From TrEMBL:
Organism: Apilactobacillus micheneri
Required cofactor names: Mg(2+); Mn(2+)
Gene Ontology molecular functions: 5-(carboxyamino)imidazole ribonucleotide synthase activity
EC number(s) reported in the record: 6.3.4.18
Chemical reaction(s) catalysed: 5-amino-1-(5-phospho-beta-D-ribosyl)imidazole + hydrogencarbonate + ATP = 5-carboxyamino-1-(5-phospho-D-ribosyl)imidazole + ADP + phosphate + 2 H(+)
Purpose: Catalyzes the ATP-dependent conversion of 5-aminoimidazole ribonucleotide (AIR) and HCO(3)(-) to N5-carboxyaminoimidazole ribonucleotide (N5-CAIR).
InterPro entries named in the record: ATP-grasp, ATP-grasp_carboxylate-amine, ATP_grasp_subdomain_1, PreATP-grasp_dom_sf, PurK, PurK_C, PurT/PurK_preATP-grasp, Rudment_hybrid_motif
Family: Belongs to the PurK/PurT family.
Quaternary structure (record): Homodimer.
UniProt keyword Manganese, yes or no: yes
The entry's keywords: ATP-binding, Ligase, Manganese, Nucleotide-binding, Purine biosynthesis
Gene for this chain: purK
Positions of the ATP-grasp domain: 114-300
Descriptive protein name: N5-carboxyaminoimidazole ribonucleotide synthase
Length: 373
């Protein structure tokens, strides 16, 4: 009904599937530009709905609710890749959906994602598809130990991942397959984990953000350091890979790409996310345009400026009760940029907010968030 080159100007309504913190920060950017925002999420008073014009409380595959959001919106986007693709297909004749469904199809399924990378001569770890006990035994015989078994769909922040370091681990993994789709990946030795955000609009204008160095704890991102402490060649390699992926995906919007940096300074693509990414939060304070504004501009058909980094930055995720520590100490730290997501329930490993500090010295910035170490 509406062409992909449609220009959606402020005062129109953007519908967002998902009400978490990414949706919240998308909504804040969109509202600051003059757009109206609606949220579809099953959680009442979700993070995103607290800053939006309205929320439809429903599951993501509730077709009636999706139709309602489509009827109230001029454009639909999403804040995470595990939304129901079949439901989205059914509203494409009612409302503009700028992001291609192949973005979701590829990035929401680890085998399709790895196949996409491999088939486009992009650096990817050795992997094998697993759907049965015999598949796993065959995959282990090809990849060996150590390796890691991951579900093809649904897993994040370390969920649904099984380390396989020996025969005992393999026998344990055999009992947990449960007729699900998995991939077995070679566990590579790497020096750092880094990531980059790339933005592309429907005029094929592509911009990349600075490379972030990421430190994880228990498979959850803890700290991002920007720019990443790597040599210039690594920064350039990451940028070139990101541009190629954006072109091959026919990307519209922002895409996050996570890499392993090997000891020889080569990069391997680990995962992709077709939306703003946790490791790109620093862009709100440190760049001339945030990843969230870039996403809104791209999906609305607007041009995007050349990305510039105005300050070095360190971002720390606030998990669980760390949000209470941050609130209590905020008055003593005017240099903290606190983002409180407004979530009601504190759960194990849940991201409740983040703090960004900006300046000229990475060491000084790390000291400013030392208490969350």
């Amino acid at each position: 009904m509406k062409g992909s080159n449609k220009l959606v100007l402020p005062q129109n309504t953007i519908g967002i599937l998902g009400g978490g913190q990414l949706g919240q920060m998308m909504a804040l950017s969109a509202k600051s530009m003059g757009y109206k925002v609606g949220i579809l999420d099953p959680t009442p008073h979700s993070s995103a709905s607290q800053v939006a014009d309205f929320q439809i409380i429903a599951e993501y595959n509730d077709q009636k609710a999706l139709n309602n959001l489509a009827n109230k919106s001029n454009l639909i986007t999403y804040e995470f890749e595990n939304v129901d693709q079949n439901s989205i297909k059914k509203i494409k004749d009612k409302v503009l959906v700028p992001q291609k469904l192949n973005e979701l199809s590829i990035t929401s399924h680890r085998k399709r994602e790895k196949d996409f990378l491999f088939n486009n001569n992009l650096p990817v770890v050795n992997y094998q598809y697993v759907n049965s006990e015999s598949d796993l035994e065959n995959a282990i015989s090809k990849i060996g130990f150590p390796s890691i078994l991951k579900t093809c769909e649904g897993g994040y922040d370390g969920h649904d991942q099984i380390d396989i370091n020996d025969e005992k681990d393999m026998n344990n993994a055999l009992t947990k397959l449960n007729n699900r789709e998995w991939i077995l990946e070679e566990k590579v030795k790497f020096n750092k984990e880094v990531s980059i955000m790339v933005a592309r609009n429907n005029q094929n204008q592509i911009e990349t953000f600075p490379l972030s160095e990421n430190i994880h704890k228990n498979h959850i991102l803890h700290t991002s350091i920007v720019p990443a402490r790597v040599n210039d060649l690594v920064h350039e390699k990451a940028k070139n890979i990101a541009v190629k992926i954006a072109q091959k995906l026919d990307l519209t919007g922002v895409l996050g790409i996570e890499f392993f940096l090997l000891p020889n300074n080569e990069l391997i693509v680990n995962e992709m996310a077709p939306r703003p990414h946790n490791s790109g939060h620093y862009t709100i304070e440190a760049c001339n345009i945030s990843q969230f504004e870039a996403h809104i501009r791209c999906i609305c058909g607007l041009s995007i400026p050349k990305i510039k980094m105005d300050h070095k930055a360190v971002m720390v995720n606030l998990l669980e009760s760390n949000i209470a520590v941050a609130r209590k100490n905020l008055n003593n730290h005017p240099d903290w940029h606190l983002h409180d997501y407004g979530k009601a329930d504190i759960r194990n490993g849940r991201k409740m907010g983040h703090i960004t500090v900006i300046g000229d010295s990475i060491d000084d910035l790390l000291n400013k968030v030392e208490q969350f170490k």
